[in-house]
Design a protein that fits this description.
3 domains; 16% strand; Oligo-1,6-glucosidase, domain 2; Immunoglobulin-like; single chain; 17 helices; 27% helix; 8-stranded parallel β-barrel; TIM Barrel; binds 1-O-alpha-D-glucopyranosyl-D-fructose
C-alpha cells in the first residue's frame, strides 16, 4: 500500500510537562497561563504540535496521571478559560494541541470510584476491577509498576481492587461497555473543544485476561502482570470501537503509549488503514534490552550500548516500513535526560553529543518527539537524599528496596536515581540565568538543576551554534525535505562498534546519516569520495576529516 501522506507524519511534536514548564502566578508550580506565555518560544523553535501531559483535575498522587474529573482543569494549572485561551493562542500561532488521555485508570477520588467502592451493588461497582481475596491475601501475585501488590484491600466491601500503578490509580474495567461509553463521551467533549489529538497513557494495558492468573515470579518476590495485561485479548477490539465512535470523526494525531508492545502488535495498534491509532511509543530502546544492565528491576547505574540501541531502532524502522508509522523519541517525563543517558553530560561533550543524538533520531523515519528542555541539552540532576525526590515511583522503590528489603544501599539507590529517575526530566524548564532559571518567582515544587546558569534558553535562542538552533535546523530540514519524512530507511555499518549509520531513499535521492556515539575519533569512510550537499553537522563543514568521524560527530549528506 503506497504510504499515505498526512500532517502528523510531517510534524515535529514537543512534549510539555505542565508542572515544570512555566509558572505564571508565582506559586512554584507550572500552569496553563505559563505555557501560553511561552508559545512564541515554541514558534521560534518551529515545532508543529504540543503534547501536554495531563492538566485535568487530580489529587496529584502521580502528578496528574490520576484523574478525578476529566472535564475540569487541575486547580494548580488554572481554569478551563485558561485552557481555552491556550488553545486559541496556540492555534493562532499554527501550533496544534494534543491532550494526554489517561483512561486505563482514574484517581481513587474520581466520582466513579467513590460510587463503585461504596457497595457491591452500586451501579458503578463494575466500572473497576474488584475480586475476592485468595488464601487470605490478594487475588493473585501481581506487582504494581510502583512497587508492592497490584491489589488494594477495601474493608468496606471486603474485596480487593486492581491498580497496576499506585493504589490511588484504580484500573477501569474496559470489559464494561458503560465504561467505554463514558470514555468515548469525555473524548468527544475535548475533541469538540477543538483539540488536535490524544497521547494515550498505557493504552496497551486496558484489556486484561479476565482469569487474572498469577504471573511469572520476578526477583523481588512478586508476579509479573504483563503477560496478562499488555496487549490483552480485547485491546484491538476496544481501540477499533474507540476509532469508530470518536477518532474517525475528527482529524486527529493519536499516539498510544504501548509499554511492552512488540513489532507485530504495533502493526495492529498503528495499522496503516487508520482503524486504530496513528502510531505508538515502543519502549524497547529505553528499557533493559538496551544494554544498560540492572542493579534491581529497572534501576541501574549503567548506560545503554550502541549495538543494542541500534539493533532495536533498526528493527522498528525496517519492520514497520509500509505497515505502520513509527514515533521517534529519546526523552519524555518518565525517562532520564537523553544527553546524560545516551550521550555525555561532561561539559566538553554535552553540546556535541546532544546534537549527535538529535541528528541520529530526527533523520529517521517516523514522527519525532522533543521533550521540554531536550532542545537546550538539559541534563540529569543530582539527588543528595530521598528528600530531593518528588516522584512516587522513586519513593516507593526506595521504601521497597532500601528500607523494607534492604537489597540496595542508600548510596547505590541514589546513584541509580541520578542515572534514571523520572524526576531528572521533571526539574523546572531552564529559561534564563535568573533565580529559579526564570521558571518561577516562588519556591519551585522541585529543585531547579544547579547547572541552570550555563544551560538555559536565554543563552541559546540567539546563539547560532546552540543546541536549540541545531534542533531548529533539524525541524526546518524535516519541513523542507520529503526524503526525511517519507524516504525508506536502510541500515548501514550495522556492526560498527562506534558509528550509527543509515541511509534514507526516495525518488532516486539518497540521504547518508552517520553518528559517532563515542568521545573518541573513529574510522569512517562513508563520506569519502561522495558528491553531495551536507544538510547538517555538529562540526563545521571545513573541519571534517577524511575517513574519520570526530568525537560525537554527526553528518548528514544528501546525494
Ligand atoms: O507511564 C506508563 C509506564 O509504562 C511507566 O510506568 C514507565 O514504564 C515507567 O514510568 C518507567 O520507569 C505512564 C505515564 O507516562 C507515567 O507518567 C504514569 O506514571 C503511568 O503511565 C501511570 O499513569
Ligand atoms: Ca503556577
Amino acid at each position: 500500500m503506497a504510504e499515505s501522506h498526512t500532517w502528523w507524519k510531517e510534524a515535529v511534536i514537543y512534549q510539555i510537562y505542565p508542572r515544570s514548564f512555566m509558572d505564571a502566578n508565582g506559586d512554584g508550580i507550572g500552569d496553563l497561563k505559563g505555557i501560553t506565555q511561552r508559545i512564541p518560544y515554541l514558534s521560534k523553535l518551529g515545532i508543529d504540535v504540543v503534547w501536554i501531559s495531563p492538566v485535568y483535575a487530580s489529587p496529584n498522587d502521580d502528578n496528574g496521571y490520576d484523574i478525578s474529573d476529566y472535564r475540569a482543569i487541575m486547580k494548580d494549572f488554572g481554569t478551563m478559560a485558561d485552557f481555552d485561551e491556550l488553545l486559541k493562542v496556540a492555534h493562532a500561532a499554527g501550533i496544534k494541541i494534543v491532550m494526554d488521555l489517561v483512561v486505563n485508570h482514574t484517581s481513587d477520588e474520581h466520582a466513579w470510584f467513590i460510587e463503585s467502592r461504596s457497595s457491591r451493588t452500586n451501579p458503578k461497582r463494575d466500572y473497576y476491577i474488584w475480586r475476592d481475596g485468595k488464601d487470605g491475601g490478594a487475588p493473585n501475585n501481581w506487582e504494581s509498576c510502583f512497587s508492592g501488590p497490584a491489589w488494594q484491600y477495601d474493608e468496606a466491601t471486603d474485596q480487593y481492587y486492581l491498580h497496576l500503578f499506585s493504589k490511588k490509580q484504580p484500573d477501569l474495567n474496559w470489559e464494561n461497555p458503560k465504561v467505554r461509553d463514558d470514555v468515548y463521551d469525555l473524548m468527544t467533549f475535548w475533541c469538540d473543544k477543538g483539540i488536535d489529538g490524544f497521547r494515550m497513557d498505557v493504552i496497551s494495558m486496558i484489556s486484561k485476561d479476565q482469569r487474572f492468573p498469577d504471573g511469572p515470579m520476578k526477583d523481588d518476590g512478586y508476579g509479573d502482570f504483563s503477560p496478562y495485561c499488555i496487549s490483552g485479548p480485547h485491546v484491538h477490539e476496544f481501540l477499533q470501537e474507540m476509532n469508530a465512535r470518536v477518532l474517525s470523526k475528527y482529524d486527529l494525531l493519536t499516539v498510544g503509549e504501548a509499554a511492552g508492545v512488540t513489532i507485530d502488535e504495533a502493526k495492529k495498534y498503528a495499522r496503516a488503514d487508520g482503524k486504530e491509532l496513528g502510531m505508538v511509543f515502543e519502549f524497547e530502546h529505553v528499557d533493559g534490552g538496551n544494554g544498560r544492565g540492572s542493579v534491581i528491576e529497572k534501576w541501574t547505574t549503567g548506560k545503554p550500548k550502541l549495538a543494542n540501541v541500534r539493533a532495536i531502532l533498526n528493527k522498528w524502522q525496517t519492520e514497520l516500513e509500509g505497515c505502520a508509522w513509527n514515533s521517534l523519541y529519546w526523552d519524555n517525563h518518565d525517562q532520564p535526560r537523553c544527553v546524560s543517558m545516551f550521550g555525555s553530560a561532561a561539559p566538553e561533550y554535552r553540546e556535541r553529543s546532544a546534537k549527535m543524538l538529535a541528528t541520529c533520531l530526527h533523520m529517521m523515519k517516523g514522527t519525532p518527539y522533543i521533550y521540554q528542555g531536550e532542545e537546550l541539552g538539559m541534563t540529569n540532576t543530582h539527588f543528595t537524599s530521598i528528600d530531593d525526590c518528588r516522584d512516587l515511583e522513586e519513593k516507593n522503590a526506595w521504601q521497597q528496596f532500601v528500607i523494607d528489603q534492604k537489597r540496595v544501599s542508600p548510596e547505590t539507590m541514589l546513584a541509580c536515581f541520578d542515572n534514571m529517575a523520572r524526576d531528572n526530566a521533571r526539574t523546572p524548564m531552564q529559561w534564563d540565568a535568573s533565580v529559579n532559571a526564570g521558571f518561577t518567582t516562588g519556591t519551585p515544587w522541585i529543585a531547579v538543576n544547579s547547572n541552570y546558569r550555563d544551560i538555559n534558553a536565554a543563552n541559546e535562542v540567539d546563539d547560532p551554534a546552540s543546541v536549540f538552533n541545531y534542533y531548529k535546523k533539524l525541524i526546518d530540514l524535516r519541513h523542507t525535505h520529503d526524503i526525511i519524512v517519507y524516504g525508506t530507511f536502510r541500515p548501514l555499518l550495522e556492526d560498527d562498534p562506534h558509528v550509527y549509520a543509515y541511509a534514507r531513499e526516495l525518488d532516486g535521492k539518497r540521504l547518508l546519516v552517520a553518528c559517532n556515539w563515542t568521545k573518541d575519533e573513529v574510522p569512517c569512510t562513508l563520506f569519502d569520495d561522495v558528491q553531495g550537499t551536507e544538510l547538517i553537522s555538529n562540526y563545521p563543514e571545513n573541519a571534517h576529516k577524511k575517513s574519520a568521524l570526530q568525537p560525537y560527530e554527526a553528518r548528514v549528506v544528501l546525494l
